[in-house]
Design brief:
Distance between the termini: 93 Å
CATH topology: de novo design (two linked rop proteins)
Helix content: 55-70%
Number of domains: 1
Structural class: mainly alpha
CATH superfamily: VKOR domain
Mean pLDDT: 88
Largest sheet: none
CATH architecture: Up-down Bundle
Strand content: under 5%
Shape: globular
Low-confidence stretches: 4-8, 13-21
Number of strands: 0
CATH class: Mainly Alpha
Radius of gyration: 22 Å
């Protein structure tokens, strides 16, 4: 009688997640593009801040009028909240986001603690950006075009980072289960468009 093998075959090894099948790579592409734009804006604002420190009457390229003026905003205490120009923070934060986006597009999978830490830091950055917008709009009474651009890019990066963390399950399996379908339908993108449209309408209504 032939011997019957009792060995149990090993289960197939699941495929290693890649950037393509883990989540939509468009989120990281958006993070990359927005962060590059934000870095450029931060660099320009940093140069302008140094120029204003040397000469408060310096004529900056974004001084369009008394109410659309980087100088008007840049000379306030709100623009130097931590004792140095706020734009310096962008020079630190944006390269980190650029690195995350490039690495993820290349297939790197960051650990949960790292992505949640990035989410917390960027959430603080988002709150700070909108606090500055509130101060400029309601208190200072002038808008800085480059600052407004940073507010927009910060909003876009925050939305994309949140999407990634939800779809990766970093907020927990329950959050992913509940929110995955709305995200796949693009409801988060629609929400971002609405928020940015409101900001644009506010600026146009008051300053244009």
């Amino acid at each position: 009688m032939a011997n019957v093998s009792t060995e149990v075959a090993d289960p197939p090894t699941p495929p290693v997640p890649t950037a393509a099948n883990r989540y939509h790579p468009g989120a990281f592409i958006e993070m990359l593009v927005s962060s590059i734009i934000g870095l450029v804006a931060s660099l320009v604002l940093s140069i302008d801040a140094i120029a204003l420190a040397e000469d408060p009457l310096a004529d900056l390229s974004c001084n369009i009028s008394s109410t659309i003026s980087c100088a008007t905003v840049g000379l306030t205490w709100q623009a130097n909240l931590l004792g140095f120009p706020n734009a310096f923070l962008g020079l630190i934060a944006e390269p980190v986001v650029i690195t995350i986006a490039v690495a993820a597009l290349g297939g790197v999978r960051f650990p949960r603690w790292f992505m949640l830490s990035a989410q917390v830091v960027y959430s603080i950055g988002l709150a700070f950006a909108y606090w500055l917008f509130y101060q400029a709009y309601f208190v200072i009474g002038a808008m800085c075009p480059w600052c407004m651009l940073i507010t927009i890019t910060t909003t876009l990066v925050f939305a994309s980072m949140t999407r990634v963390n939800i779809l990766e399950g970093h907020f927990g399996a329950r959050a992913k289960q509940r929110l995955e379908r709305p995200l796949r339908l693009g409801l988060d993108a629609a929400g971002v468009v609405i928020v940015l449209a409101i900001l644009a309408a506010m600026v146009i209504y008051k300053y244009v």
